[in-house]
Amino acid sequence: MVVCYTGGGTLGHVYPALAVHEQMKESPAYEAFWIGRNEQRERAVVEAAGLPFFAIRSGKFRRYRSMRNVLDIGNICLAFFQALRILSKRRPDVLFSKGGFVSVPPVLAAFALRIVVVSHESDTTAGLATRINARFSRTICVSHDQGFASLPASKLFVSGNPVRRALAEQAKRKDSLPRPAFLREGEPLVVVLGGSSGSEQINALVRRNLQVIAKKAFIYHQSGQEDRQALVSERYREVAFIKDELAQLLSHATVVVSRAGAGSLAELALFGCACLLIPLSTSSSRGDQVENAQRLANAGAARVLLGDVDDRSFTEALIELLDDEEARRGLGTALGAGADWESAKRIAYMLMQI
Question: What is the per-residue pLDDT across 260-269, written as a single tens digit (0 to 9) for each?
Answer without folding.
Answer: 999 999 999 9
